[in-house]
Design goal:
Bound molecules: adenosine-5'-diphosphate
Distance between the termini: 76 Å
CATH architecture of the largest domain: 2-Layer Sandwich
Strand content: 5-15%
Number of domains: 3
Number of helices: 10
CATH superfamily of the largest domain: Histidine kinase-like ATPase, C-terminal domain
Number of strands: 7
Radius of gyration: 37 Å
Shape: elongated
Largest sheet: 5 strands, mixed
CATH topology of the largest domain: Heat Shock Protein 90
Strand order of the largest sheet: 2-4-5-7-6
CATH class of the largest domain: Alpha Beta
Helix content: 55-70%
């Protein structure tokens, strides 16, 4: 670089040296030696001062900015590290910090986009695969019937039933996919209200009782809940989450029990769904909330699972600023739980409305 700190320092030092000598020259009785010494001294002092200022405060920082820009251009993000001096008084350092931050943010955005793109591709492949299975099965049965099997009364009934089962599966899958995407895109309008979660849970248990009976499973509350427990949440979505968790308890338990319990503490209600089923191996625990992830594919499909139940529960909880957690022991059972904020009782709500009316 032609315009570097040494060149600038030399130029300025020469000017100051000459000016000092010229000024002293005007003073009477100053010897030539003194003139030369004063000129040289001011030259050296100016040179070092300017050199240090430029080298350490200006060129060094400009050099760093160039380095960062060059790496950014080459899409090399290896330089990215937390900048040491965020509040420096040196404006160059602050510019450099800003460029660092800009680089980090762009890099993060690129990484996020790449991840989203990979996720989208994977999801599309999974959905196509999941849709293909029941469609192919139903198609196969219908074509076999059309090719002549329809004449055989026994075969006709059997094949039609199988085709219907495949189409029901398809319907379930599409329904779950729609629910998931509606919650995710925010298309599903949340309707928060104060409601008694014990009532909702009783309804879910009633709905699932005959299914549990058929599999020799006892489904019940873990204790007597004689008093209502009010929560503030979207009643329909919570019903759906309870339905998914309790049905899973039934699906993955061979003889045993599935229980539902509540614990009230510090303005929250903790809801727990426990089963004495097969449990989930620890290496899979982190993945069961992913769409289409199944520990045992054939068991899930045999039980009519879409592989989306827990992903829906996870999204429902996120929409409530909560989360669902799981603990499980293989061979002993699983425990899924989530928290909701305590709601107001009907009397409390009425009181509030009265107070507001009085205030008006
Ligand atoms: P699926 O429709 O397959 O049940 P889910 O999203 O509801 O899909 O669950 C994902 C997977 O997590 C299931 O396939 C199963 O392997 C596992 N799983 C979920 N709940 C339980 C449970 N209570 N006990 C054991 N495994 C479970």
């Amino acid at each position: 670089m032609l315009f570097n700190s040494k060149a600038v320092a030399l130029l300025l030092a020469a000017i100051v040296g000459i000016l000092t000598a010229a000024f002293l020259y005007l003073v009477p009785d100053v010897s030539t030696t003194a003139l030369v010494v004063a000129g040289l001294l001011s030259f050296s002092a100016t040179y070092f001062l300017v050199y240090i200022v430029f080298e350490f405060l200006v060129f060094k920082e400009i050099g760093k900015i160039y380095e960062v820009l060059n790496k950014l251009r080459k899409k090399d993000f290896s330089f990215i590290e937390e900048s040491e001096d965020q509040n420096s008084l040196n404006p160059f350092k602050r510019i450099n910090t800003e460029i660092y931050k800009y680089g980090v943010n762009r890099h993060q955005e690129i990484e996020d986009l790449k991840k989203m793109e990979a996720f989208r591709r994977e999801f599309l492949a999974d959905v196509s695969h999941e849709l293909k299975t029941p469609i192919f099965a139903a198609q196969g049965f219908v074509h076999t019937l059309l090719d002549g099997a329809v004449e055989d009364k026994k075969v006709r009934g059997k094949f039609l039933k199988r085709a219907a089962k495949s189409l029901d599966r398809l319907d379930l899958l599409i329904h779950d996919l729609l629910t998931l995407s509606q919650i995710e895109t925010g298309e599903m309008k949340m309707h928060f209200e104060h409601f008694n979660i014990v009532d909702s849970a009783s309804e879910v248990i009633d709905q699932l009782e005959s299914k549990a009976d058929k599999r020799n499973i006892k489904i019940s509350f873990d204790a007597e809940y004689d008093n209502p427990i009010f929560v503030y949440a979207d009643a329909e979505l919570i019903y759906r989450a309870l339905m998914n968790l309790l049905s899973n308890g039934i699906k993955y338990t061979d003889k045993g029990k599935v229980t539902l319990g509540f614990e009230v503490s510090e303005g929250n209600v903790s809801v727990a769904v426990k089963d004495s089923g097969r449990g989930i191996p620890p290496e899979h625990l982190g993945r069961i909330f992913e769409r289409f992830f199944r520990v045992d594919k054939s068991r899930s499909k045999e039980m009519g699972g879409t592989g989306l139940g827990l992903a829906i529960v996870k999204h429902i909880m996120e929409a409530h600023d909560s989360n669902v957690t799981v603990t499980s022991t293989v061979g002993k059972g699983s425990n899924f739980s989530f928290r909701l904020p305590l709601g107001k009782t009907i009397e409390e709500e009425e009181e509030e409305v009265n107070d507001l009316e009085l205030a008006d």
